[in-house]
Sequence to fold (393 residues):
Amino acid sequence: MKARGSSAKWAVLVAALAGAASAEPAAGGEAVERLDLAGLPILSYDSDTGLGLGADLALFWRHPASARYRLALRAQAFFTTGGVQNHYLQLDAPRVAGTPFRLSLELGFFRDLFRPFYGFGNGLAVLPEGDPAWRDGYYAYELTSPRASFAVRYGLGGRWHLEAGYGYQRLLMKAGGESLLALQRPTGWDGGGVGQLELALLFDGRDVEASPTGGLFAKAGFRAAHAVLGASSAFAGGYAILAGYHSPFGLGPALVLAGRLTADLDEGAVPLPMLSNMAGGPNLFEGLGGQASVRGLPRYRYLGKAKLLANAELRSRVLRLRPFDRAADLWLVAFSDAGRVWAQLAEDGPLWRFHLAWGGGLRLAFVEDFVLRIDLGRSEGSTGFYVELNQLF
Fold:
């Protein structure tokens, strides 16, 4: 389930910046720290969850001698017409007391009134949408989850980093008596606590983070939940991500080939809402199906303890404008996604049975850091339309 601020969906890239303290030299001739305020309205659309509305506010404490903020405090309130809420309060300190340690803290609240559950496995059929059981919520349940977490990142030198963190979330679940969830009663169907430790090693060789045109990103991580950590059930898992970016023929942003391969494996009594999670830490996203994995496939369409996902995109920056002396870019994108799951660590249909998607979209980038992603995807007879923040990878 989503448990990171990165799940915020911004579609209106309008910032209001105000210096609460001047960076001009003080009376003694020394520059003073300043406080910046940033505010963004949130307007998004996801064909799975509907229209999204909300707001994102942030405070940045900056020292004139450094381009990076010393401390950031962010808050988000977000609702969709499809019954999803995601609210959080985050604190981020990139260099704690001048050390190589980066500390992040978060308090959050998530709710999904109509979270889908179609069962487990890679080849499940579903009832037609007009079936009476579908209308009665046969494939849906309600999930509410307050959460708290902290994470520490340590720079090992160069582009290598070590991440460690702990998170706790409470799973509160409701399902109709004739729903598939109530009939199957999988692990965690009646809720409980998830206390989880994570440890990861990553390499970030991208030329830029928001819209890379070259370089590699790699990350491998391990997670574990146990009663001593506050979990209602014990499980462990690992994941690996490899993403690469290349501009052939020296064309730069005019032509970029981008690809991502993600593998995720869990073992033990994994609560149902956690089975959709792939990767971890700030790179957490959900699959299989939906805007972050196989675009066009309905969200959570396939669940399993083992997941494999591949994404490929062809990106081209076709226009650059400079309103108010700031770069504003338009990108065209064609993409293809492929993924599959295994319900258990055993055979689950033919190995070659991947769920495929294809489509295209636009990227609107402002000052190279804010990227608005618009995607239209088609998969297995269904279509998905998404307006989200950030590149998929």
User: Anything to note?
Assistant: The helical segments are 132-135, 180-184. The CA atoms of residues 40 and 56 lie 5 Å apart.
